[in-house]
């Protein structure tokens, strides 16, 4: 019977039959289930199901019939939920499955479970798997059979697999072909969610083990290594970074790394806990060939990991030495990573060995870096730059190599320092090596122009730039360099370039050097309106030839510009005015025409002002700017204008009201006699600028005799010098003050003018207050001391030594501070032995002796001062020494480099001249010492040839001119034309007589017919080099010329020369010695004139003249001038017994040296309180005939000063003629008089004439 028939028999007969109610399954209660199965079904039982059996027999016991069940029925039973509930049940059931059918059983069971969706309990599954591993012989199965198991059978039993079974499982599959082993893992992966952690860990370890061993990565194919691992581990914990790297066989690392994409590296590193060891990141990127692509394209990792990535590639980046690669790194690959830099990345030791190209790119990146979120600063970057650039082995700056195209760029500062230039110091700059090749590079210049660098750095760069390239054009300079560039930079510019640069210079530079203005102006060969407008203030550099060539119309059209220019030279202003007037385009005859001249007013000759009404000047003076401009004009201009103003109304009240404050010094004293005593008048007077001689109502013993003591003391306190006050008191005033102070509060040192303390009787100073006294005295100006009392300096110093406890020659710093200005007369021994701080106390001194200079140089060279040893001296040292360089000799100058000296002197000399800090002779002496070191001896054959460069318009305006030229070269290099066109610029800077002689010789060549007034007015001190033959050819026709030539600031004249000059002047029709002429001559030059000239001076001229000093006049000339002064000041009636007014006395005071005894005796009853210095100026014959009571009346409160001045020859002679008993009546300690016991005959024989002998006060006189 076939199987199908048998099945039909079961279905159609047996099952139907047993299902009938009548048969009830043929169940016998005493019969076992196995017996029932055999008896009821027989061999047809294999076609039934367990379910049918249980339905037909409600008491059916499956376990009793297991041995009778077919494989299908056992599968049905196993898949029935709840039947297999324990491992024992599984083991029991499978006892009835023969080994030969074990595969069929599990295959059918797996299918059934999957079909029915039944999941076996974990213990059951575990027992089932154990049965599989024990009986299925999987280890020995062919690959195809094993693959069936993996794909079809095992999936139903793999859930919740245990560690033990996983291990067994892997022992079966790990050596199988790769597809099978991978399918085996995939099977596990499908149920991984049901696995315990330890199971998953075991699977990971087993997979890991499968990838190592004798044939590591045996299943890896031509694929991504990362993808391979992903497919190998699936969901079972992807390897960490260390494992990821360690799985690679060393020989296959390049291959495997190449297979991984940047995105996969990113995925790897972004996995949780993937980076177990941050150092392994460097291992990864060290071997990864696609690191650049990764950095450029993949998003940043978390900051910590991303910074670690950067740390791994950073050293590699710094070593890149190919420009294109460097650019790729910084411009693309590291864009995301540079913000992650820390101080460790940019530390000097890290960056030290960086390639030049990478370092340059690093500096560029850091220049635009955002420093707000990092813990390092720009100064840290600069420190790294500084260390890096200072590692050059020679003087060649690091990273500069002319033979290497990549390193041959001269934009060195822009490339390697960039915006960090602001941190550079001069010392840094000097350490970089020879930077000369980089100086003219436009990128570097632009960088310096845009960066705020220390002044000394900028100055050094500019000085070096022009030292190496003297003619480098200002057109290429950044704005800030324009203010430091030398004149040579502004030469040879086109007109358009000049306009642009001039505009920039005037907009950006505070103080434009005169030589720069001259250089700019020299570019305008033909002046135009545009050129003058562009030059602006630099029009002061124009030559007189340029000005005269411009023509009147052009000058008129630009007058609004030219009139605002300050600091015109007189010859320039005169040429402008002369051109305007001579061309007929301008007239000076109104308020507007005066005011419109602006600063050019200085160029108008005084003769023109004499023709203008005083009322016009009064109106013009309402402009403060006009007043300021006039105050800068030559004094003769001011005097002329003041005279015209006074002519309008000569009352004292009107004069002090009408004459501007700045010009009050030119008001003749006679117009100040009747100044009202009102408070408003006092305020007007106090606002004005006065000369000492004008202040007739100032502090003198003559004036204050009627004042109360309290008022006098108040005046004295009011005379104390205050901040920004330049009150200068005279010795006669100070001694007068002392007479009142000694009777008041002598110890109130701080309340009085400090100069009064010079005249204290030290014995009257309380010893306990002596330090306070000398501390106050230390601020005094000792120049007030007359030559007669100059020895008092030593006395004062000796007293100070005693007070301060100074022993020997050493003075401490504290003691030096107390001494103050008394340090200015310390001897060389004191200077050398004292605290080095003594140098600071010598700085304010007006002058120093040769001995003092030698001593201070010894102190400097000792190296123990704040200026350090001489080998450390530089430009800053010279700046700090200011003004002592004025006195230094070659001993000190030789210690400075030529560059330091030149840079210092350029600004130093300009400051000295601009602020009138030193005489030109002092400057000349200083430069002689400086030039002793560098002066080159010129061969005799070259003496007539210019070898150091022609002197042109720009050079003569330099404050260093003519110091670069010795006498032969000055002669050879200065053309007559240059001298003519820039005369005042030359004469204003040349003070050596040898040079000045050359100037005169060349002028004689230029003007063979003689020098004109206009030329003479700007000769300055060069006029003093003239000979009588020179002067005889001069045209001295104008008071302006005489006034200029007689200017005492330009030096003294010999008497013969004065006589010649005045004779030339007076020979002109209409010229006379008027008040202006007398003011121009002054006392010394006036005394040089012959008596035949003096007697022709009119009284009115003396009346309106300033007080003239007659000290150098002969007795005869003094008498002539006094006689004229008597008439001038209406004092002719003083031959009577009428007293002389105090005002008249003060007007005559300067002329009293020519007075006779008769006039002097008229002063006895006038209470003039003559000061002793005036007394000593009297004729000795007059002094000698005055007896003691007369002198006492004459001197009044000042009589005690006879003791102070008793060492003077005049006083000594008078004392010897007096009876000692008469002198004793003065009670001031005078000694040396005649003995009263001498006989009259003895006296007579010792006296030659009554005119030279004073009669005794005890005998009558007739």
Automatic annotation (TrEMBL):
Keywords noted in UniProt: Cell adhesion, Glycoprotein, Membrane, Signal
InterPro entries: Mesothelin, Stereocilin-rel
Subcellular location: Membrane
Primary location class: membrane
Residue runs in coiled coils: none
Xref: Pfam families: Mesothelin
Region (Disordered): 1237-1262
GO biological process, one term: cell-matrix adhesion
UniProt entry tagged with the keyword Ligase: no
Recorded family membership: Belongs to the mesothelin family.
Protein name per the record: Mesothelin-like protein
